[in-house]
Amino acid sequence: MNVQVLFHDSCFDGAASAAVFTRFYRERVRPDARFSYRGLSHQAGGAAIDPAVFTGDENVIVDFRYSQDARLTWWFDHHVSAFQQPGDEAHFRADTSGHKFHDAHRKSCTVYLADVARERFGWDPSPLKELLHWAEIIDGALFPNPEMAVALEEPALRIMTVLEANKDPSLIPQVIERMQTDSLAAIAASSLIATPLTPLLERHRQHIELVRAKARYENGVVSFDLADEGVDSLNKFIAYALYPEARYTLWVGQGPSR
Fold first, then answer.
1. Which residue among 45, 75, 80, 93 has the highest number of C-beta atoms inside a 10 angstrom radius?
2. Which pTM does this prediction carry?
3. Residues 143, 50: Cα–Cα separation, whole Å
């Protein structure tokens, strides 16, 4: 049995959801199943998922929008934007497989998936409690303070940083495999994460200084323009760490992708 797990690419919650699903499926459905992993990215205009990705005997989507393709056998998502194509939601509501689940009120797909697997299928997710804990914090932005999200000292946040910047399609499947058995500290310390993390942390420090130099605060809003610096993405908590009283951040960036 070949199981193709399609997950939200470049995302801690997406990778963690894939890891949790794999553990659940092996322990409660098919112990002899073979797994492959492929990341899915959002396309402009909410384009439908390419049907060519459904290559398994079982095809699973976690932490990503719905597909009406008949080859989709399992689906878990928590996004409000899950139903993009005409007829998506009606198709989901009419499904009788008992293997497709959506709850837009959940903070993370990882914990939602684990809860469904426990309540509906009798699976015990407790061996993955560390992974569940951090997926909920990261995807729900439940940090006790913005400084934690900017310091990037926790192993989970170091893994998150690498996943979000990753361009190597072979890296995240390896992380997913390790998330099923290893501690987050062990994963973060491995060359899989530690090697690409070094230049990312340096770039992160540069971003902090750029925001510090260019940001302006007024009436609860921090604004800054980094278009001339060639920055198209950065840690969204930097401004809140520098300006704890801020409620909103507005910034302009520019890079190869946007």
1. 75
2. 0.96
3. 35
* 6 and 129, same domain (yes or no): yes
Percentage of the residues of the chain whose pLDDT score is greater than 70? 99
DSSP secondary-structure letter at 244? T
Residue entry with tokens 């139903």: 83
68 lies in which domain range? 2-142
Strands of the chain, DSSP E: 2-8, 34-40, 58-62, 72-77, 100-102, 216-218, 221-225, 248-252
Strand partners, 8: 40
Question: Do the domain assignments include residue 130?
Answer: yes
Residue 38 neighbours by CB under 8 Å, 6+ apart = 4, 5, 6, 7, 53
Does one domain contain both 107 and 27? yes
Instruction: Examine the fold and report which residue of 142, 161, 183 is the final residue of a domain before the chain moves on.
Output: 142
Q: Write the single-letter amino acid at 8.
A: H
Q: What are phi and psi of 100, to 5 degrees?
A: -130, 130
CB-facing half-sphere around the CA of 98: CA atoms within 13 A:
4
Q: Cβ of 257: how many Cβ atoms within 10 Å? A: 6
Which helix (H) or strand (E) covers residue 19, if one does?
helix 12-28
The 10s digit of each residue's pLDDT in 125-172 is: 999 999 999 999 999 999 999 999 999 999 999 999 999 999 999 999
CATH for 16: 3.90.1640.10
Distance CA 117, CA 128 (A): 13
